[in-house]
Each structure stands twice: as C-alpha cells, then as structure tokens.
Amino acid sequence: MADNNEPDSRPASISSTSLKPSVSFRLTSLITAVSFVILIAVSFYAGTVYQSSQQRHLSLTPAKVLNRHFAFGMVIYVGQNSLTIDNTRTGSSQLINISKSTLISIDGKPANLSEIKAGEITLIRMSNKTDAAVVLVNSKFTD
What we know:
It contains 1 helix and 7 strands, in the order H-E-E-E-E-E-E-E. By secondary structure, the protein is of the alpha+beta class. It is rod-shaped and about 95 Å long.
C-alpha cells in the first residue's frame, strides 16, 4: 500500500486541481453550444422564409396556365369555322369556334381546319369558353 507521506509521483505541471475543467472552460463550452443552437434555428427560419417566398413566385406561373381553358376529346363534326368534339373532361359534346388566328397542328405540322377528320382525338387550348386558340391533333392520341 502507498504511504500517504510520500511525495506525488506525477510531474508538478499535472496536479489534481488542473485535471478538473475550469469554470471558464465550462462557460466557453456552454456559450459555444448555445451559439450553435441559435445558428441552426436562424438557418431553419431563413430557409422556411425563402421557401415561402418561392412558393408565392411558383404559384403565379401555374395560375396563368390554369386560368386558360382546355378541351380534350374526339372530333364529332368539322364545320367551316368550327369543330364539335365529344369532350372527355365534361362528358358532353362541345362546339368550338375556329378563327383565322387559331393555330392548328396535325402531328406537329401546320394544318388547316379542313384537314381534321371526324374520329380524331384533339387537344384544344381555348382563348375563352367557346373560341380555340390552338388545336392539336396527334395520331398518338388515338389508340
């Protein structure tokens, strides 16, 4: 057993009091940890604010598209200045007016209204509820 009167065998630079963390070290560690938590919270808040601002900008673009009317269906009748389609969205037939400014495309190529045939499937972007802005006919639409 070691004699309590013997001198400490550890070097003088390492004493039992220097092995305990000092109060200033504990305080520094606590301040560092709190600062890190605050930094994370501020970063999270800034990220949510940024995402919210992006949502507002993104919602403006689709709203413009959603305000436009579309019709999709099978052509029932082709007139001189109109198409009648069986609209699959509404489940009823729909008369669509075609003007000189209406763009018509069949399989990606410019076409005239007279080239559209009954039975073809068409996608129409409407300029209002009755007038077509763009008429797209694609053989891939049909089965």
